[in-house]
Amino acid sequence: MSKTLAGNAVIGQSGGPTAVINQSLVGCIEGLRGCDAIGRILGAHHAVRGMVENDFIDLTDVPQDRLDRIANTPSSALGSSRDKPDEAYCQKIFERFAENDVRYFFYIGGNDSSDTARIVNETARKEGYELRAFHIPKTIDNDLECNDHTPGFPSAAKFVAQALMGDQLDNAALPGIKIDVIMGRHAGFLTAASMMARTRDGDGPHLIYVPEVAFDLGRFAADVDRVYSQRGRCIVAVSEGIHDVEGTPIATKLAGNVERDAHGNVQLSGTGALGDHLAAHVKDCLGAKLRVRADTFGYLQRSFAGCVSEVDQREARAAGRKAAELAVEGEEHGSIAIVRTSDDPYSAELQRIELTDVAAKTRTLPTDVIIDGCDIDPSYRRYFKPLLGGLPAIEQF
Questions:
Q1: Which positions are catalytic?
Q2: Helices (H), the chain
Q3: Selecting from 3.40.50.450, 3.40.50.300, 3.10.560.10, 3.30.9.10, what CATH number does the domain 7-140+307-358 have?
Q4: Checking CA distances to 322, which of 129, 247, 251, 329 falls within 20 to 30 Å?
Q5: pLDDT tens by residue, 151-184
Q6: Does domain 155-301+366-388 have CATH number 3.20.20.450?
Q7: pLDDT, tens digit, for every residue of 273-308?
């Protein structure tokens, strides 16, 4: 490892906010404060956009009590960005770093963010500029390679589980068919977590659809009909990213006009189109008089303050601190991975991995836990249970 560098540090928060991303921010600040070589600690306002525009928030002397309040506040305190930097964009970032004597770069985000850290790091090396570049994991999709789970996911999963618990009670009181659309473009972990809402035999969700397997509209209607015929009601949890055998998102097949985000992806969140069209399809196939409703959880899953996972809070802060400590100790670059070492009692450790191990790669739900394309194996509860922590106790007649 190289010597400790003297210079300033920049921290950015990228992509969709989470309930614990500020824990990682504060953990990183705490890890840097004990190093005399660190000059100023700068927060990039709105992530990479702030970096290229020299828009920084000075975090060097923020009082600890304020940092603690920020850590416990959901969403991104520095602001975020959906910009997807290419090499030219990253060259501009590097130039601003050189102008500001930035020698430490920490980027909190998902796989695109890790790729940004990789490109900036490689640019610095080509220019012969000494820089420590670290990616700190974050994503509610839980789709980063080498990680058992990622900060932000446990809290979002807890929200999903508790929302489905409430929906289950509502549906039992007023039976019908209810469809809940949950985030997850390519990875179905968050939708699969809805299985934790089942506290008794017969509880919903009765059907769970994830993007790791192809979705068939005809099969979907038949599944709903089967459950409804047996139980007189049916709750469905479905990932926003479900697709057909050709890989075409169902949302684009059902909706005439679709929006695309800055990355060119079909806009799946922030719209109720998929749920509305699935509900209409069920009515068309099974009967217009059926009571069919759909909700799209959308952005509510990301920064909900009412059900944050304690494990998530602790690990998010530790991941930020670990990245700072490794950089200060002389590691030149890397990403932080959470590796589970035990289910019961739960334990995990933080490991440094290469940026190339995670950059622009996507981890998906193991297909061997998916049952008949419409459910999740009950044994997978052991994966979710320690991450979510305690769930409300409920009782019914």
A1: 141
A2: 21-33, 47-52, 64-71, 87-99, 111-126, 153-173, 189-192, 217-231, 250-254, 273-286, 310-329, 355-358, 381-388
A3: 3.40.50.450
A4: 129
A5: 999 999 999 999 999 999 999 999 999 999 999 9
A6: no
A7: 899 999 999 999 999 889 999 999 999 999 998 899
